[in-house]
Amino acid sequence: MEELKKVIESLSTGKAPGKDGIPPEVIKCGINVLLEHLHDLCQCWDEGAVPQDMRDANIVTLYKNKGDRSDCNNYRGISLLSVVGKVFARVILNRLQKLADRVYPESQCGFRAGRSTTDMVFSLRQLQEKCREQHKPLFLAFIDLTKAFDLVNRDGLFKILVKVGCPPKLLSLRYPQWSKTRLRSRSHTLRHLLRSVAE
Question: Which PROSITE patterns would you find in this protein's record (predicted)?
């Protein structure tokens, strides 16, 4: 219950709601009344099933303010998810981050709480200075994967999670959530999301 409460208290406000129309402010302000009910809802954990409404997303596009408006590449797709679904996903993410802290090497700063690119820039500068002092060559490669989240192979990601020791209970919740996610456009057409993961 405490874990769920912390997640609710950390919700960002001023965000658009999902299909249910419930903004994060309602959940945060009603925490005293809603906490037990949300906890009961999150007991789908024990059943290994996530309600479909917590997986469905409304898709809206936002112009990036650059380039030709008729070019689809100049728009960013935003998934508006149920806030209750986001709360549930955050609980799972927090548990996965504990696993990641055990699995990731110390040098891994991306996608880790409390670390940032600033840490890596500092480490890189230190490495450059050491190599310069010792007159050793240093070779660097920077890779920027365009639309990386859009191209994630979910089956491959699932296999990696199994390999690194992700608890089966977490996998039984995450995998169906990935495989049965549906997107709804302004035309109200529901389509199954076959690849990628939410950013």
Answer: RT_POL
Q: Give the DSSP per-residue string, 92-120.
A: HHHHHHHHHHHHS-TT--TT-TT--HHHH
Q: Are 84 and 31 in contact (CB under 8 A)?
A: no
Burial class (CB in 10 A: 0-12, 13-18, 19+), 47: exposed
Crossing angle of helices 168-179/83-103, nearest 10°?
130
Helix then strand then coil, in percent of the chain rounded to 5, is 50, 10, 40
The dihedral over CA atoms of 20, 22, 28, 32, expressed in degrees to the nearest 10, equals -70
164 near 103, Cβ under 8 Å?
yes
* Contact of 195 with 150, CB cutoff 8 Å: yes
Smallest CA-to-CA distance from 128 within 139, 118, 117 is with: 139
Q: Calculate the CA 19 to chain-centre distance.
A: 19
Q: Is the pLDDT of residue 69 over 60?
A: yes
3-state secondary structure of 170: helix
Cβ-Cβ contacts under 8 Å for 196 (sequence gap 6 or more): 149, 150, 151, 152, 154
- Which secondary-structure segment (H or E) carries 79? strand 75-81
Query: 137-192 pLDDT, tens per residue?
Result: 999 988 877 777 777 787 888 888 888 888 887 777 655 555 556 655 565 555 55
* pLDDT at 126 > cutoff 70: yes
